[in-house]
Amino acid sequence: MSSHPYYFAYENRYQVVYSAGVDRWGHSPDDTVLYDYLKSWVEQNGLAGKRVIEFACGEGACGAILSDLGCVYHGIDVSPSAIEKARSTLCSYQNASVEVLDMVKGPIEGEYDAALDCMGLHMLITDTDRAGYLHNVFSVLKDEAPMLFFRESYRREGVYSGTVDSFAQWSKITGDDYVTPQPRLVTRSDNGEVAEVFVPLLPARAKDKSGYIIEFENAGFLVERFEEMASSYAIPFSASIFVRKGS
Ligand SMILES: C[S@@+](CC[C@H](N)C(=O)[O-])C[C@H]1O[C@@H](n2cnc3c(N)ncnc32)[C@H](O)[C@@H]1O
Questions:
Q1: CA of 121 relative to ligand 1 center, distance in Å
Q2: What is the mean pLDDT of the chain?
Q3: pLDDT of 208-219, one tens digit each?
Q4: For the ranges 19-28, 76-85, 96-105, 147-156, which has the lowest average pLDDT?
Q5: Domain boundaries in the chain?
Q6: In sequence order, what are the residues at sequence separation of 6 or more whose Cβ sits closer than 8 angstroms to the Cβ of residue 90?
Q7: Which pLDDT belongs to residue 214?
Q8: Confidence tier at 4 by pLDDT (50, 70, 90)
């Protein structure tokens, strides 16, 4: 298992919110925008009955949707608490599985017909981690397999476009850290009461359109569609990007 500080930050956040009585932190399987995107992606690419891997799967919301849509699903995430939650979310689906795994370090095994990343790539800060992750994705996908990056942090302009070699450098540029607890309001699942928790605001690395396109092309993917997303409870400024592994 990874000893990277990211791992502790994510795990810590899931633990803090669950112990405050919150059932789910990330996307919900009831998110209609997410559902509609996944449904049309599955239909357009004929993915029912096919093997789909999700990176940074969190609590398994997309796994439930993809399973309902008939996919054979495998999700990976670095956080054991998120994976435990995903396991219980997906327990009634015979063709769904999840495991604790670092998508940057791997090793990621198997061969897949398609891949999904829902707010995962933007959590990786350094160029090396992002390229290592995209290399892992490339190596488990069949030629010409589609991949959807859903709601990745995005700005039209003004993003830092230089190289990022370390988290310390990123922290210097942005002031972000993944240690300082920040107050957040959450809703308890049992009685609907609002509670305050203190969790670090985990840094995300936004890119602009050309930044994403260059990054995907360098990793061997063709960018087929780039869509700015409406602001949502999950993230204010994001884009969804449809890519395909080059052969
Ligand atoms: C913003 S959350 C999104 C979770 C889920 N996809 C969703 O939309 O609800 C980012 C997720 O990335 C996971 N993550 C961060 N770094 C990772 C890594 N190196 N390998 C695997 N998962 C990672 C975190 O544990 C967290 O669950």
A1: 8
A2: 93
A3: 999 999 999 999
A4: 19-28
A5: 5-245
A6: 60, 63, 64, 67, 73, 75, 96, 97, 98
A7: 97
A8: low
Report residue 176's pLDDT band, with 50, 70 and 90 as the boundaries. Answer: confident
Q: State the DSSP H helix or E strand holding residue 63, giving kind and residue range, or none if neither.
A: helix 61-68
Select from 68, 78, 74, 85 the least CA-distant residue to 51.
74
Rounded distance, CA 59 to CA 81, Å? Answer: 8
Q: Which atom of ligand 1 is nearest to the CA of 150?
A: 8
Q: What is the mean pLDDT of residues 180-195?
A: 86
| Binding pocket residue ranges, ligand 1, CB within 6 Å | 6, 10, 26-27, 56-59, 61, 77-79, 82, 102-104, 118-120, 123
Quote the CATH superfamily of domain 5-245. Answer: Vaccinia Virus protein VP39 (3.40.50.150)
Distance from Cα 188 to the centre of ligand 1, integer Å? 22
Give residue 151 CA to ligand 1 midpoint distance, Å: 13
Q: Which atom of ligand 1 is nearest to the CA of 61?
A: 9
Which sign does the torsion angle of CA 220, 77, 48, 61 carry? negative
